[in-house]
Queue: 2 jobs
Job 1
Amino acid sequence: MILYLVLALLFMAMGASIAITIGLVSILYIFFNDIPINIITQKLITGVDVSALLAIPLFILAGDIMGKGGLAQRIIRLASSLIGRVSGGLGIITVIACMFFAAISGSGVATAAALGSLMIPSMVNKGYDKGFASSIVATASPLGVIIPPSISFIIYANLTGASVSDLYKAGLPAGLFVGIALILLFYFLAKKQGIKADHDPFNSKEFFTALKESIWALGTPFILVGGVFGGIFTPTESAAVAVIYALFVSIFIYKDLKWKDLFPLLVGSAKMTANIMFIITNASLLAWVLTSEGIPQALVTSLIGITENPIALLLIINLIILIVGTFMETSAILVILVPLFLPVVTSLGMDPVHFGIIVTINTAIGLVTPPFGVCLFTAASVGKVAIHKLSKHVVLPIIVMIIVLLFITFVPDSVMFMVE
Amino acid sequence: MSFVITLHFYSHKTLKGAGDRILRILDQINFWINKVCTYIIGFLLTVITVVLFIQVVARYVFSTGTFWSDELARYSMVWLVLVGAAVAVREKSLMNVDVLESLFPKSRVILNIFQSIIILVYSAFILYIGFGTLELVSAQRSPNMGLSMSFVYAALPVAAVLLILHAIVNLFYRKDRREEVKE
């Protein structure tokens, strides 16, 4: 098995598609080990033929409609009107806007692309260092995978049978913790760099105008998160309602989206869906191979062989996921690693929901970690900074995120207080 | 759209000879196949959205279930993902790690050949196994709509053929289509 995994790493390093590499090594393994080959087609179909995963295309579509239909811009304006005259005000607005945007799209890359092009130039205008401004977007955009609604939670729930609404309830405080920690860090960094209060003072008139303008837009996160929290909708239902609602608002109320733009938008969302879910279905084939080879059990034995101390074990698991997270795609990590580690953590008495939050924060950190973090790349290209320059600026935020991660790992109640 | 078409014809100038003529025709065919595929995936996403919205309305407004909606949406998603994967190969947008390419731009030609070969090998396996499975599942029917499962499983060999067609063109077209515009 090790040979096949080395082969996979080699293929990926040479730029072969992640999905196809994962699928191909699984197929080769099945062929050379006399496993009935029809399992391949069966797993590739059943990997996506899942009711719970229907939420994914709808989340992506809702996010795209919000972006193109002017809903996202109005929410950002509201976030901007909330912050008064403080050091690093624009940086703080960027983090808050990322958190709002996250509550819509659930995709870190989409958030980095949308907010980066908007916020980085305006921060640079106010005297922010280009690298610093881009690092704010790079590190705040992955909040999208932690704050519900999140594609990662849908995938995790499908893998483990954990309740999605419990994951939402634990994910919201977790996302807020990371967000607040980043806000505090950027506030002090801005102060240290001597960036003056760069934003207009708080103006209640502007706030109420922005609120009035964005009230329709706020309906979407309300449906997506509130509908599931309140137990009214399943995540898929909430997403279907949110898509139709966002469409209605952007065409008939804001009138920012034209009918003729609708089909190209749908095709764009469909491409994104296929790209993510093609990885999921190939990863589910690999996960099946790993499980049928008894890798999870072997891993439990060998990990517990190293140490029986739960704290040390959790540290090791976090470290492994962090390292894998720097060079693997988020949904692939979930589909492949969660079935491997779940038996270990449940034997330690950990709640699967709690573990879900930990894995998700780990993958969020992976999205900004050099050299392969996609949010890092997106922020660098939108902000027009060299990767190595941006990498220096993300070190401190990453350390802060890791500290929050460890805090959440060892103090479960910090995020689990809403889960019954 | 006119932009895409001019770009498309421009790339033909790099091709000469008889083998290249076949490739040129294949590329032309793939161009139209891909166009149809993008319409198909856009349509399938529309189906998923509308069907699931109808399901919600039926449940909350009319308090009735719709026995077909979940199945129809799921099978649409299966086709969307597999046909969409082929579109992504044509547009070279499948997610990958491109660090090596950006560090050593000169290695791009060799890496692209390697990447296309990986896709070809994968698709050949899927095509071979996919046809075999098709016979196995032909007697099965979906629990709610009574649809033959062949309709669902046919997505794999169809996608494999599309992937092979696109990968062959990608393999022999050494240049990136976008780059040629810049020159």
Job 2
Amino acid sequence: MGEIITGYDTDDWINAYPTDRDKFYKNAVDHHKKKKGVLIAAEIVDVLILNKKGELLIQKRSKKKNHNPNMFDKSMGGHVQYGDTVEHTLMVETVQELQVPSLLLNNTQDFENSIKILHQYLNTVALVKKLGIKTRSFTKIIDGEKVEVGNKKNFFIGVYDGAVKLVDGEASGIFWYELKDLKKEMEDRPEKFTHDLKYMLEKYDEEIKKFIDLINRFTTK
Amino acid sequence: MQKNLENLEIFDLDGNFLEIKKRDKYYEEIKKEFSETGKISKKVKTIKLFLLNSSGEIYVQKRSKQKNENSGLFDKTVGGHVISGHSFDFSVVKECLEELDIPITILPKNDFKKILNLDLEKIGVFQQVELVENFISIRKSINGEIFEQPLKNLFYIGYYDGIVKCKDQEASGIELIELQDLKKDILKNPELFTEDLKFMLQRYEKFLVPIKKS
């Protein structure tokens, strides 16, 4: 049985429906090839994780992946399985990819207090908050071809300071980057970075900088 | 213990033991000697290693930007000093635990050939590859200066199929890469890789092979 993910038609973002993952991408590629435009969308959770130094966790995707092979990408991300909530997906992704639980705190005051009180425990838990939701298309490399894929993206940002593990078959590399170094490398070699990551850094530049300030405020002592 | 307070055994280049010194003092001394004479007349014991998985992919470490030397460059999997009183093998076990969080053992050549009988997801297995009495490690400092340091270095190659951790104090990242892709990347951007890594790839290429069908 294939993976059943949450899909939308791009002219109706209210009614989600179950769709087979492989079929979804087959159709998206087909629409692209026939120049029909972006008709369908998949719901996604994308997360940027920073450590206590304010460095961003970037993963290099394995060259064996069908989607965006060999490219530098956000810290983690995944499809929302049909019937699952976004919050559940976020929790599962952080456990699977970092092997730590995450706490989602949507209240700004709660989030700040948590960092303040728990800053010594950030190697055992990731504190996460929501950045925003966007519905639009993102460029993906699928089987060597540039394809526009519709997405409902749920963006999150979080702090985690433990060791990160390289799990074979998932990422082929994991790196901590200072924001300015990451942006410079992105300028120098734009083709090496996913559209998802570029979009997040551009769209949420201010939020990311504020987030780094917040981490610095409570953890540098 | 803080790394710069560790005791190191100091030798002259003929291999005669001279004295024991704290790491930070030793480096102060040889940096001074190098800037004055362009040469270093003493050496310490070190280990350098490549870790592979059984399909032959190599773990490459990206050095932290905060390091004084070779900062931000891609490097061999692990390197480190042999602390006074420790053996080379012990140092490899210790460094693998500290930097990669993996349990390993070192086997003599004859036993190493049998490692497919072991569960490499549970334990990493290394062999000694070569002891180089006066290995010249070429390093680049932050201001671009080249520093050539002689080392009594023992090289190791090992295999492990479990999960490897990147501890961010030591490195800013880790990547698993096929030999052919690594060689291509080095040809394209040689300035992004350490001289140690290039040396080891060239000299020990015959060891960097898959031991199992992937």
